[in-house]
Design a protein that fits this description.
Elements: E1 3-11, E2 16-17, E3 22-27, E4 30-36, E5 42-49, E6 52-58, E7 68-74, E8 77-86, E9 89-92
Parallel strand pairs: 1-8
Antiparallel strand pairs: 1-2, 1-5, 3-4, 3-6, 6-7, 8-9
């Protein structure tokens, strides 16, 4: 089984991709992958992970949310997890 993970961060307050956002993927407290979002707000974190529980952390461009962290159960296949963020709100979902 193989698991891959990507993300996309959008600044919904300004209506633009969030560029240069640090994203970390952790497993068991250890960083297994990290990246910064590109000019389109996207980051591809990993191509070949083992299935299991991971923590996905973002450092968004918000004066309120200093860090957004999600706990994910990743199964076989590709997972895309976008983050929509503004100064005082954020939402995420499983994308395609």
């Amino acid at each position: 089984m193989s698991v891959s993970l990507s993300t996309h961060v959008l600044d919904t307050e300004r209506g633009v991709p969030a560029v240069g956002i640090r994203v970390e993927l952790r497993r068991g407290g250890e960083v297994v992958a990290s990246a910064e979002t590109d000019g389109d707000g996207r980051a591809r974190l990993a191509e070949e992970l083992d299935p299991g529980r991971y923590g996905l952390g973002f450092e968004p461009p918000s004066p309120y949310f200093r860090r957004v962290e999600l706990e994910l159960e990743l199964e076989d296949g590709h997972h895309h997890v976008p983050l929509l963020v503004s100064s005082f709100g954020c939402v995420t979902y499983r994308g395609s």
